[in-house]
Amino acid sequence: MTHRSLVFFLLGSASLLAQGETKVARPFPSPTSTKTAPAPEPAPSIATGGDHVTATLPPPRRDATAPTSPVPPQPEGIAFDEQPGCVWATSPRWKASFDRDGATFVPFLGSEAPRDLPVRFALRSVAVGGERQPAASGELQRTGNTVAIARPGVREEYAASDAGIEQRFVFASLPRRGEIVVDIGLTGDFAVQPEGAGFRLVNELGVVTYGQAKTIDADGDRCELSTEWTGSSLAIHVPAGFAAKATLPLVIDPLIGSLTTVATHAAVLGSDLAYDATLHRYVVCWEYQYSQTDTDVRLQQLDDAMQPVGPQIVVDATLDAWRKPRVANLNLYDRFLVVAEGAAPGQNSRLALRVFDGSTATMGAQSTPPFPLSSSVSSPDVGGDPSLSGPTYFTVVFEYEFSLTDHDLLYAQFDQNGVPRNTWNAIDVSNDYEHSPRISKCDGQGPSATQTWAVVYRRDQGQVGQTRAMFLAWDGQVLTQNMPLTGFDSPSGPTGLDVSSPTDGTRKYLVVDTKVDPQTSHRFLRGTAVTSAGTILAADQQLSFTNDPDGEPAVDCDGARFCLTFVENQAVPVVHATTVDLVGSQLLRRDTASVMAFPGIGNDGVVARHSGGAGTNGDRDYGLVLHVGPGGGVFAHRYLGMAPGGFGTRAFGCGPLTWSAQGNGAIGETIALQLANTAGWAGWVFGAVVDVPLGFCPGCRQGSSADVVLPGATLQWTIPLDTGLVGVTFAFQGFDFGAGTCLGSIALGNTADLTIR
Question: Which of 241, 257, 273 marks a domain boundary?
Fold first, then answer.
């Protein structure tokens, strides 16, 4: 198996088996209420034509094959100026120059900036199999939005996009096979700081990001790479194992820059996003103010690199106000549902819906479910379903004004056409004030019997209150209702609350809440981990680590870990993204990346590609969306989370030994390795990764430095709770005296390489 594939196989088996299951939706629960009003009536007869979207949308597509982009990415505002020996490229967010020796990137820091902040990238050398060759000057070429420096042995390319310049190194041939090290000199007025698996180039004027590099060969095989800061250069390492089997050409691909400008409306009020793994598409929707009584909504498709695909699409341009839009996806049907508060001038707000078909880039008709609700509806949120086994449904939660002092929370399910399955049902209809509902982006991957949405909300009781939770099955059945999570003193001001999609297998959720420090009156972040069965695993733990007030949390899950985004309210507010892991009963923040700092910035949403149906193997990307208002716009950002650690295999063994592994290779977790086919005294050697031929045993190779020798066919190791181990690879190799032919009796197993995350 390839690197990490064993653990990914074990984690992914249930999901793969689930794709062929037969699902039968149970009847949607009858409406429930403890009050005499609003009294729900029998389910209305829902027409499938007219105002609904059935007539305008094509049948669902049920395969998971990624289609060709219907419209290629169209970077806006990029222009070139070709001069002798130099090419300049400019965009609204950056400019760059290219010559025979490298590139200079200059981010736009605002017209008020006292000076520019250029960053110079110059290839110094390329080493293949340990033999280093200094870089020679190349021939400057430009094709479309790509500028290339054609050097002997490697073609250096810079592709211009809204987000920045994408740097690529293309190897059409290799003099030998072995580890490839690309050494890139950096010069400029900045300090280099690690950011996840990449780097931030920091100056008091601003920040330039250098994202994690990946490599991909001609067959589509890919590998995420480690990059080392040497003090004057970035050294990107392609492992010898990947280089040895790669089909040429081989491409190394980091990204310089970080943000995609989605829209530049002057009065953006909020945004959200969702992901469809079949289409490889994000959909971002946002609200902007047209007048004091009229807010409109648009959406934009983005590809996996967070680049715009096709034009902006109108969700609402009527004279009504569509407020607080939220969006979710049904992967089976390639459709997205946008929900919002809809209100005509002077009338109560209602639940407003519209379906977008991502496969055809067409919008269905606007609709309002004919629920028998006589008062205002507010704060809607929507969850989707990544399953490719139908049927699947959207689940919408919303707040209902029972009276001025008593708000209730309701939910309803809708099919892929936006048609309600039934009328509404209750989340919480107590005599207290329930508000601010949030539902997980999806109900998780895996068999339908385990698919569960989490709903969280606030219940205010005078000056005190509770954050509470509810869990719903994929077809709307109530599993756990009105479960208290944490208590708080009811604060004034905006409420920050969100819940992730579940992890695979054990169905764990992360609930992130904001509370008020009674000493400083600052808001800070608290996290609670809970299972779909209602078991609290980590209770009300602090996730803020600065003295500045934090707020506006958004959270999702890649199937194993969580990504939390939030605003740190400094003199200039900053949006951060961080990976959060549950280790035992502790919530740990692994890393923190600064996404954007700007006055008036708002953190709006995060979605894991996993929530849209992407597989666990290597698909740990998140999409973030944020806005700046007034006078700013909508921005998207790609964040690489931290994959669960995993085992790779090197075929170094000789003899009949095989091994199997269990456990997640993350700090604080326990892994177990088991040898099979032993016949005598057996054990394990454990240490650093090496490759040493054993001349006295032809065909046998030592793959571990053997710093530790452990007798016994079973090895169990609890990885120390030390963040310095993240990214380190250890090698394990089994041995047996009695099962092999080396020196008459010795057998060695294939090497198990564990990369810790």
Answer: 257
